[in-house]
Amino acid sequence: MPHDTRYAFLPVLHHHGLSLNPLSIETLQVNMGKLCNQACQHCHVDASPYRTEQMDRKTIDQCLKILSENHGIKNLDITGGAPELNPGFDDFVVRAGELGKHIMVRHNLTVTLDGHPGTRVSKRYLPDFFARNRVEVISSLPYYQEYFTDKQRGKGVFQKSIESLKMLNARGYGKEGGPLVLNLVYNPVGAFLPAAQSGLEADFKRQLGRQFGIVFNRLYTITNMPIHRFRDQLEHLGAYDDYMTKLVNAFNPAAAEGVMCRSLASVGYDGKLYDCDFNQMLEMPIENGEPMTVFNFDPDKILKRRILFASHCFGCTAGSGSSCGGTTA
Amino acid sequence: MNYYESKDLGRFAEVGKFAGGLMKKFFDYYNEATATDGSLTKREKALIALAVAHAKQCPYCIDAFTTQCLETGSNPEEMTEAIHVAAAMEAGMTLVHGVQMHNGLERQGG
Fold first, then answer.
1. Confidence (pTM)
2. What class, spelled out in words, does domain A23-225+260-298 have in CATH?
3. Which of A87, A89, A291, B24 is most buried by a 10 A CB count?
4. Is residue B36 part of a domain?
5. Alpha-carbon gap, residue A63 to A248, rounded angstroms
């Protein structure tokens, strides 16, 4: 679905005297494919068990080459779909670890128990695999109760997520000051902005600890992006314009300065480069006369690029801001 | 056209058209009282306001504070308990007047 020109982002940046240029490529965020064992209500990727797009071996190898040649890239952030369902996932993590990169995996928790939706191959080895490779695990859990979580992510997801979190805790994940980092991600179940990150993190820690004995490190709050499934839902409810108005009215210049597209490059399953995972899903690639990909990766050109902004960017700049690492202001 | 249109909440400030100074004082007070962390958190204040909104049956306030409760981290169980407090208080305020009825009955020799 194309972006919405009624809610123009650039004039708002200009009004506030902001010019958001790239600052660095600290993180290479790689989307390994759209296959997922879940089909969440708000998924901006439109991922599901029926999707077939997957990053191939050649593209994975090229991502590893980029990581080895660019010492400024400190982090590899692996996402999907459920990236663990890509046949090249394990090898990618191990080899990126050998390069000394900090590896983050956006892990949906339930894939450990559900396994591969097509082949039914088990994924129960994942908690041990993550621990062995010192992977930072980042997992969505929309709420510390079943109702909101299952409403957004599907029936039974909450109980499976709890079981999976316990498996990670048993390997040492989530202990304050420990080497194995487990961060959770909250996003609202509807057309409203997230609560303050620090207060919600305290609520999650208290409730998950009390009810299930679960520990984790940080909670990241993320604003729902008005694209794809969530936009469809908003339009179905007749709430799209109200939601966009809310995001526009909540524009925060300080949050805008910290947007994640200034310090990462996003790689699609086919190797094309984007400013972020949202632009990727809206098919707004980084171009320099021709589409830029991992096969013609040029850090200088990437740092000199003009970031592509559109109406959905108000999702990253509302209130306290929103990024793959939580608030930005 | 209905008596209550949800979009009219966005026009609240227009009530200041003929007495802007008073309206500004009201909004400053309103925002300070309901939308800041004080001895009570914003989250707790939103639950109180949601309960009052139901007791006073203000559709604008119900809309606004349902959102405010969600945006401060409350869940449906907490919000429902809050309106039960309002409902129980209203029932109690009705029933406690039964004492007046008893006083009247006594005066009538009942």
1. 0.91
2. alpha beta
3. A89
4. yes
5. 36
